[in-house]
Design a protein that fits this description.
GO biological process, one term: proteolysis
Oligomer: single chain
Strand order of the largest sheet: 1-2-4-3-5-6
Largest sheet: 6 strands, mixed
CATH superfamily of the largest domain: Alpha/Beta hydrolase fold, catalytic domain
Subcellular location: Cytoplasm
Structural class: alpha/beta
Protein name: Proline iminopeptidase
Number of strands: 6
Order of helices and strands: HEEEEHEHEHHHHHH
Radius of gyration: 19 Å
Number of domains: 2
Domain AB hydrolase-1: 56-178
CATH class of the largest domain: Alpha Beta
Helix content: 25-40%
InterPro entries: AB_hydrolase_1, AB_hydrolase_fold, Peptidase_S33, Pro_iminopeptidase
CATH architecture of the largest domain: 3-Layer(aba) Sandwich
């Protein structure tokens, strides 16, 4: 952890903390096509296309599960070259359906239905965090439809990764973010933070749910970047988004 900690501490102390990490990669671009695709009898998913309509197709897969897309996601790609395709996985933001469990392989098939709907022969798949898991699962199921993978912030939801992130490992890098996440849980329940938060997120008391959801979301938002991203962190104040 020492190298990461030194970089983070130096950046936090600098008056101009690593501006290259926060620069706009490409200019903002507005969607030229949006819609909802019915992927089952009970739910639809929101999608949008931006950039070059005749460009190289690239699919952006967001994190979470439940993170949703945002306009910032389009800026990973050169809009003059790429046909940029974003969608909200079912149970997130504009594709929200409360009772759908969002199993991995159901989401994989949703991706394939979207590809067919948009008449994309094959595409580049770009995924981060949970999106990296989904990208790998999709490419394993439909290798002939994937021209390449770009994976960032890889998080495969293996037990050792969950334990490191939620049970104290990441706290060594982000101690300031860890304290409020830890302190919501009484000392007697800190043997398993995932279990303790699961209990509160499923409480019959709405405020208990919201408090746990806010703390959980802020922990994730504060650790998603080496340096604090205030726009992301503010999303942790939105009870409906968090829960």
């Amino acid at each position: 952890y020492s190298t990461v900690l030194r970089l983070r501490e130096a950046a936090m102390e600098s008056k101009d903390p690593l501006p290259e990490l926060n620069r706009k990669i490409f200019e903002d671009t507005e969607p030229h096509d949006t819609g909802f695709l019915k992927v089952s009898d009970i739910h639809n998913l929101y999608y949008e296309q931006s950039g070059n309509p005749d460009g190289y197709p690239v699919l952006f897969l967001h994190g979470g599960p439940g993170g949703g897309t945002s306009p910032t996601n389009r800026k990973f790609f050169d809009p003059n070259f790429y046909r940029i395709i974003l969608f909200d996985q079912v149970c997130t933001l504009d594709s929200f359906f409360h009772d759908f469990l969002g199993f991995t392989w159901d989401l994989v098939e949703d991706i394939e239905k979207l590809r067919e709907h948009l008449k994309v022969p094959e595409w580049l798949v770009f995924g981060g965090s949970w999106g990296s898991t989904l990208a790998l699962a999709y490419s394993e199921s439909h290798p002939e439809k994937v021209t390449g993978l770009i994976l960032r912030g890889i998080f495969l939801l293996r037990k050792k990764e969950i334990d490191w992130f939620y049970e104290g490992g990441a706290a060594a890098i982000f101690p300031d973010a860890w304290e409020p996440f830890r302190d919501l849980i009484p000392e007697g329940e800190r043997g398993c933070f995932v279990e303790a938060y699961h209990k509160r997120l499923n409480s019959s008391d709405k405020e208990t749910q919201y408090a746990a959801a806010r703390a959980w979301t802020k922990w994730e938002m504060m650790t998603a970047h080496l340096l604090p991203n205030n726009d992301s962190i503010k999303r942790g104040d939105d009870d409906e988004f968090c829960l």
